[in-house]
Amino acid sequence: METQKTFTYRIRFHGRGGQGAKVASRILGTAAFLGGLYAQDFPLYGAERRGAPILACTRISSEPILERGVINNPDIIIIMDETLLDDTAANPLSDLKKGGIVFINSTHTPEEIKTKYHLTEQTITLDITKISLELLGKPILSTLAGGVASKITNVGENFLRQAVEMEVSEIIQDKEIIEKNIKAALHCFLSTPSVKIDMMEIVYRNNPVISVPFEPATISSPTVNSVANTPLRKTGNWRVFKPVWNYDACTKCMICVNRCPDSCISINEEGFPFTDYNNCKGCMICMEECPSKAIEKKREVHAW
Ligand code: SF4
Ligand code: SF4
């Protein structure tokens, strides 16, 4: 990709608590910094719980960055969980800059996504959850999304490698896990197609200090601030795995019913347990606790 002489890229990561959006934004910022650019990265949390929508922002620039605050009108949006596309509170695509680029962690093609969500901007998809399960054994997407974002913004592979090593080492000391994360990030870097970024001109115009408007709580914590939303929040829509019961093996001991942290397992007329998939988060505690191995873990794929 041809890089402009002076540029500022504003990248917004959307994910769910526990997926690693904050670390992804940090990996991109660190990789850009190591590559000699100016960088800024920070997370924005709403509800502090696993699965809640969160966002993180990274600015990278050839010039000192004077902007502060949450990124509105991003040049690039990285969506780490495609169920957020249907989340009216998170609404991650709402203010994508015209000519911008969207990456979506999805099993669907860019054309399918563009048709469904009426997107006209450049769209890239890659099933990084699958890659994560294969290479890391867990659906933790931080280093993988960092790899994707580094490719889109043209941050070099070597700087990405160093950034992953630095950032993951702060959390985990196990060298094998760090190496696996480097491998996963580079895999995603190489699997992401090169894109042409042609709309991100330098923005310092006449006034070098850009004033950031007051940020309403509906932006920083949309889920918490939506009125009377509890019954409407289908918290099961973002799970990676779903439990599936095998009634031939089930002894009706009720252990799974009692251990489900979300109380979403009920009993059917024949006395067998079943879950409310609208609210099951896929923690798989029921499977771990079942003494009869009557619950199986199946990968959930967002389908329409
Ligand atoms: S996966 Fe977790 S939330 Fe879902 S039914 Fe099992 S224990 Fe409950
Ligand atoms: S813990 Fe296992 S055996 Fe017991 S009720 Fe649940 S599925 Fe059936």
Structural topology:
Layout: E1 8-16, H1 21-34, E2 38-44, E3 53-61, E4 76-79, E5 101-105, H2 110-117, E6 122-126, H3 128-135, H4 142-152, H5 157-171, H6 175-191, H7 217-220, H8 222-225, E7 241-245, H9 255-259, E8 265-267, E9 273-275, H10 285-289, E10 295-299
Brief summary of the model shown:
By secondary structure, this protein is α/β, with parallel strands linked by helices.
Radius of gyration: 21 Å
Q: How does the major sheet shape up?
A: 6 strands, mixed
Order of helices and strands: EHEEEEHEHHHHHHEHEEHE
Number of strands: 10
What does this structure look like?
The protein is α/β, with parallel strands linked by helices and 304 residues long. It has two domains: 8-224, Pyruvate-ferredoxin Oxidoreductase, domain 3 (3-Layer(aba) Sandwich), CATH 3.40.920.10; 235-299, Alpha-Beta Plaits. The protein is built from ten helices and ten strands. The chain has helices spanning 21-34, 110-117, 128-135, 142-152, 157-171, 175-191, 217-220, 222-225, 255-259, 285-289, and strands at 8-16, 38-44, 53-61, 76-79, 101-105, 122-126, 241-245, 265-267, 273-275, 295-299. The strands form three sheets. The chain has a six-stranded mixed beta sheet, with helices on both faces. Strands 7-10 form a two-stranded antiparallel ribbon. It has a two-stranded antiparallel sheet with strand order 8-9. A hairpin with an 8-residue loop joins strand 2 (38-44) and strand 3. The model is unreliable at 202-207 (pLDDT under 50). The structure holds iron/sulfur cluster (2 copies). One iron/sulfur cluster (SF4) is lined by residues 245, 250-256, 273, 290, 292, 294-295.
